[in-house]
Amino acid sequence: MQEDKDREDFIESGKLAAKVREESKSLIMVEESLLDIAETVEQMILQEGAKCAFPLNISVNEQAAHFTPETGCLLMLGENDVVKVDLGVSINDALTDTAYTVDLSGKHGKLVEASATALENAIKLMKPGTRIAEVSATIEETVKSFGFLPISNLTGHMIKKGLLHAGVEVPNVRTAMPYVLREGDIFAIEPFASSGSGLVQDTDQVEIFSLINPKPLRLPQARKIQEQIMRDYRLLPFAQRWLDSGNSRLMVNTALKEMMAQRVVISYPVLKDSGDGLVSQAEHTILVGEEPLVLTK
Fold this sequence. Notes:
The protein is of the alpha+beta class. It has 2 domains: about 1-200 and about 270-295, Creatine Amidinohydrolase (Alpha-Beta Complex); about 205-270, Orthogonal Bundle (Arc Repressor Mutant, subunit A), CATH 1.10.10. The protein is built from 7 helices and 16 strands. The protein has helices at about 1-25, 35-45, 110-125, 130-145, 220-230, 240-245, 250-260; strands spanning about 50, 55-60, 65, 80-90, 95-105, 150, 155-160, 170, 185-190, 190-195, 200-210, 240, 265-275, 280, 285, 295. Helix 1 runs antiparallel to helix 2 (about 35-45), helix 3 (about 110-125) packs antiparallel against helix 4 (about 130-145) and helix 5 crosses helix 7.
C-alpha cells in the first residue's frame, strides 16, 4: 500500500537526518568556517543518495533562521557564538527536518535548555486527539519557565510528501487553532527561545529561494537558471551558492532578479530577533501516534 511505502520513506529519511545531525555536531567549533560546515553537512546527505530538503541553516546569535553562507563566505564561528544548525533530508519526497543549538561560550546553557526542554515536552503530546493549542501552550509555558520568551512569529509545521510546510502550523505561543492531531500526521516541532523581544524580523540578506511559479522568461540566463532549478530542486528551497557553482554569480544574480520580479521564485530573508537577543532552537520531526515516533532521533 502507498501509505505503508510513504511511512517507510519517512522513517528512512528521519534515520539519515538523525545520523547527519549527530555527525555534524563535531564540526561546530571555534574558528570553523561556516561555508565549510554547510558544504560538509550537505555532502553528508548527498553522499547517502538522498537530497537536501533545504540548504543547511547556520544561524548565529540573534539570527533565528534562514542564514546559509554565500559563495566565498569568510565567516568563522567565534568563542561567544550561540549556533543554530537546521538540516533537512529528502528521500523519495519524504522530508524530515531537525535542528539543535550549540553554545560555544558555555555561558548560555539555560537558553539552549529552554528550547530543548520545550521540544521534549511538546513531543509527549503528539498523540491522536491532542489539540495543537495544547502543544503550543506547553511550548510557551516551558520556554517562559526558563526566563526567556518563545518566538511568536516562527512556528512548527505539518509535513507531507513533497511539502515541507503542508498548511497546518504549530505556533510557539498560545493559539486558538482548532486542529486536532490525527494518527499518522507528521509534524516538525521547533521551539525557539529568545533573550530579546520574542519576535523576528527580516534582514537585508537573502541566500535562500524556492521556485513557486515557473513561466516563460525574457532573459536567456533566467531561462537557463529556471531550467536548472526545475531539474535539480523542483519546489524545494535552494541556496544561491548552489547555482553559483557552474554559473557566474553575476549571471545568477541577474536571473534571480528577473525571477523575483516575475514571482517565479520567492526568497527567504535571514531572520533575526528584533531586540537583538540571543536565540536558541530545537527541532525534531514526529510521526503522530499513541506512542509518538521521533523520526529524526
